[in-house]
Amino acid sequence: MNQSERRKYLIGALLKENRRYQRMQIPKDVNEQKQLLRSLMNVRFAAQITEEFAAVQDEYLQDVNAEKGFITLSDMEELQPDLFLWQGDITRLKVGAIVNAANSGMTGCYQPCHNCIDNCIHTYAGIQLRNFCAELMEKQGYEEPTGQAKITPGFNLPCEYVIHTVGPIVQGHLTTRHEELLRSCYESCLKIADENNVGSIAFCCISTGVFMFPNRRAAEIAVQTVKEYKQTTGSQIKVIFNVFKDVDLEIYKGLLS
User: Fold this and answer.
1) What is the dihedral of CA 121, 79, 200, 133, to 10 degrees?
2) Is the pTM of this model over 0.85?
């Protein structure tokens, strides 16, 4: 199969799974096909997939991810020893682990084509990631507490692992408790990375954006926590601060220069 054939196969298979979609036609436009496939993957609840579907999906996503281009540590700016800064799509990073700003359900974003990091990571990792997370949560038996972390394979992403953490949501004034929880997110991610011999970890800007943690204070806590963790534990892990917005890029440059 070529990419067009794989995409149509995947769309057809996902449409057949749900009676509401069975009469839906696959659009002819390539961009509309890509949007529909992502939407169907986003709204699909955790459930088994066939070996054939998995194989076609994996080939398709690996091609998509390769086309975007991989970014390694050598492509990044090392502003301090073992501390790197990079702006762009975190799903392109070929590193030990990337950090996902997850919600308490831990199975990804179900809003079709939403541009949050949770949605992007689950989209380009593939359906296996949601299934894996759902199994973890079923065994746990309760929602993921804020400030903790779980590690999963990266599946079709170029990173080896994804580390999922639930950051604090700031409603109203920023409190000391919000800051403690955000600090715990970074510590928990670093600890679980070291426990799994992960050599490098890329942090997104946890809890900023829709979680409304002030950007500058969040960055200050991130940098301080990483430095203190490395100094206290002697960890040799290389840390990438991955930003998407220009405002965060300037904040981190100021803190690390």
Assistant:
1) -30
2) yes
